[in-house]
Write a structure and sequence with these properties.
The structure is a homodimer of 335-residue chains. By secondary structure, the first copy, chain A, is of the alpha/beta class. The first copy, chain A, is built from 13 helices and 13 strands. Chain A has a single domain, classed as Ribokinase (UDP-N-acetylmuramoyl-L-alanine:D-glutamate ligase, 3-Layer(aba) Sandwich). Helices cover 39% and strands 21% of the residues of chain A.
Chain lengths: 335, 335
Amino acid sequence: MTDTSPAATLDIIAIGNALVDVLSAAPDEFIAAEGLTRGAMQLIDADRATTLYGKMGPGKEISGGSAGNTVAGAAMMGARCAFIGQVAADQLGEVFVHDLQSQGIAFTVPPRAADVPTGRCLVLVSPDGQRTMNTYLGAAQFLPETALDEAQIASAKVLLLEGYLWDPLEPRAAMKAAIGMARKAGRQVALGVSAVFCILGHHADFTALIDDGQIDILFANDEELIALAGLDDFEAALAALAAKLPLLVVTRGAEGAIAIAKGERFEVSAEPVDHVVDTTGAGDLFSAGYLAGHVHGRPVADCLRMGAVAAAEVIGHYGARPEQDLKALVAATLG
Amino acid sequence: MTDTSPAATLDIIAIGNALVDVLSAAPDEFIAAEGLTRGAMQLIDADRATTLYGKMGPGKEISGGSAGNTVAGAAMMGARCAFIGQVAADQLGEVFVHDLQSQGIAFTVPPRAADVPTGRCLVLVSPDGQRTMNTYLGAAQFLPETALDEAQIASAKVLLLEGYLWDPLEPRAAMKAAIGMARKAGRQVALGVSAVFCILGHHADFTALIDDGQIDILFANDEELIALAGLDDFEAALAALAAKLPLLVVTRGAEGAIAIAKGERFEVSAEPVDHVVDTTGAGDLFSAGYLAGHVHGRPVADCLRMGAVAAAEVIGHYGARPEQDLKALVAATLG
């Protein structure tokens, strides 16, 4: 991970699904009646999105998308960020782009014609804050390789890739090309594996990338780690993957998080939260805090705590974008 | 206010601006630099909406509109409601309609062509929760009289009119026609005067309606009461208007609220709130609670407390639509 390339002008450039979340409180009975798996994310088509939306209660529309949430959080903590994703030329697309640009995050991919609308994620929030996500990818699934700006990717310390985006063909090709651009420029590549279903669908691909040394930083939760390692035991999975990755960061919900950096293990507890309202974005914001510390050269223990602070903020309210000043929260917690 | 008409099948039918709020935290310095009056509402045109949105931070899109907020809250407390307003055939229009219909609120006005988009209110939320509103009316200003369904209006115990909508020509004509329909059917007419600037712009009109006995229930805050009465003293203004109205309900922010019903005065304290996040919709939700009690024949003191409970809920989070189960909150507070 020695950086011998020219001084970076960006800290993080992320490629991810450009989505607006539609968040609505829902009792667990509704989630069961709709045949959904509580806590999971599933892809849905346009018809199902219309039907499910019609059954949902009143919503709040808040920009989302896993990697988008991460750069939103990291930018709030002082990281210089850019985002690559595909919106349509419609109102939700304008909302998504506005919400990134208003935080100083570079976003230059032109909107696509609105024949396929901007993607959205219908998020059902249970009374205990657990979220069940139903994603209509819309325009996001058509992100073309031509959307990449090699000079921009080469200018960022870290290229962050969203596992969810591995599913559709065009964005996957774009992300593979982006990895090549980042590595050629001597930059780091971070992968958030996003969800167990992503890993099951692309196990060989993810494993090959890791085995080939294409990934410098991997973000996963405990279930994803186990699925990726193909081992039942958490500690065994941790050891197996840590051996192949310069930096492995694993979140464990209320149990905190673990980082293994060049073989050395660090742990952090979860930050206390008064009342969990909505867990949407908890993992994304953990990554945001971690990366914001990492790109500023902070020690691993600090990066973990920054991740914990950012994750705790975002689960205290609806939506996956931070409401409170994360920089101030980090300063108050870490000094 | 004796109701000799056929049994009502609706409790409240409201006519108001169909708006989606775009809520964003903003320091008071930003509000000052933009030349805005903290705490006020002003109308803006499409160009100014684009410019101001471009300067605002990341937002949350949540359905709004004063009368829309009131029926959303009243429906949550068990009132049977309908809403009349104009959206465009666009994504924000779909959001607005969905959020009402998903609460069982009848909404039958067809969307207008999207050449003029659905209206939105850019809400800047100060650190102390005060909101400064900038409304681009969009399609809402073109609500035509033909959108009224006389049978539907005649079927509701209370017709609620939004003062903000007095400004544009077509909706004003529609509301005047609706008053005639409601009165012909022996129903009550409630007016929320919305804002001091509405009163200043339409003082003669509002006064004539009140003097003619066209208004049964008036909702105002203390400043609006003073502007409407044209008197400097709050108590004098209260007495002057109470003499002309069967029911006058005046909210006073943290000081609670007063109702004068057929000359008898009732007061309620504000409900305690842990942390004021965003005062958008406080008055609208007070009206919601009051009317939900009123249409169910509850005593004035109960109606006031229901208003206070609903208002306290909505200022505890972003957005003017309730998040918590208001019916349960009312039951817990009033029994």
